[in-house]
Amino acid sequence: MQWFSLFILCALVCTVLCDKPTKKPSSKFKTTRKPLQKKPDSKTVAVKPNIDVYKYLTKFGYNPCANSTKSKPTDESGPLCSTNLASMVEAFQIAYGLNVTKKLDAATEKLMRTPRCSLPDYPPAFTDRGKLWPKNRTLTWKLENSRSPFDKSKIRKYIQQAFNDWAIHSGLTFREASENAKADFTLTFANDEHGDGFPHDGPGGTLAHAFPPWDPRTRGTSHYDLAEDWSDTYDGVGINFRLVASHEIGHNLGLGHNTLESKALMNPYYQLFEPTDMLPKPVSKVLLRFINHPHM
Ligand SMILES: [Zn+2]
Ligand SMILES: [Zn+2]
């Protein structure tokens, strides 16, 4: 009887202990898929394993000496432009309203590991009002090339929805171009380097980029990283395509990044919005520049 009791006791202990999931050697940088019932405010965590902070900050516009001829040392006077990582981190923290520690603290690193738009934060986009889109005709868009991450008809539906988000606020109207017609806006999925100096970088990291209306060579184009885990759900699984498309179309219309307002659609970092709340109020302030514009 004693042995039987001992067996029952062991079985109970094992039920409590053995049913617990084995704790895996988890990495905070590991990509995980969220369960379907995840709340909409959660973020997908497709992140890069390592971040070179200097390169990262240079890429997004926080290195005042980048691309400067003054950064090259001369024999006579030494470098005319100098910067250091602490001041670059400080500029980033100020831009995003983080605590200014000048160090890669947890909050700063967390933000840097959030997927984002490929376009830099500085210099701010230049708005050439004379080259914005005309209001007196319907503007057209087209999904270019045959590659898309999921059902192409759904992608096209979400593109139209993303344009409609802006139509409400900008006074512009948009429709899909017919098959052989030239479109004002073109959207493309691609991998890696694709010819414009903004190479896609695989899952996580940067998601997409788009170009403003004042450069005739790139006007109206936007490029999406085919390697992302694109989705059309609002449960935190994958990267919601429509939300990213809405952000990129904002660039196509002439808007730059809004770093200080974390809930703004033009904030560079990916975040989930409810479909009914695509353009939260902070963005409306930015849109004021479109209102009463004589050429729109
Ligand atoms: Zn952007
Ligand atoms: Zn591109």
Brief sketch in words of this structure:
The active site is at 248. This protein is α/β, with parallel strands linked by helices and 296 residues long. It has helices spanning 2-18, 53-59, 85-95, 106-112, 152-170, 241-253, 281-287; strands at residues 139-144, 174-176, 185-190, 208-210, 221-225, 230-231, 239-240.
Keywords:
binds zinc ion, metalloprotease, 7 helices, Collagenase (Catalytic Domain), calcium, 2 domains, globular, alpha/beta, about 25% helix, about 300 residues
Notes on the structure:
There is one protein chain. The chain is of the alpha/beta class and 296 residues long. The protein folds into two domains: 44-63 and 82-113, no CATH class; 129-287, Collagenase (Catalytic Domain), CATH 3.40.390. Helix content is 27%, strand content 9%. It has seven helices and seven strands, in the order ααααβαββββββαα. β1, α5 and β2 (174-176) form a beta-alpha-beta unit. The longest helix has 19 residues, at 152-170. The radius of gyration is 24 Å and the shape is globular. Mean pLDDT is 77; it is low at 1-45, 70-75 and 288-296.
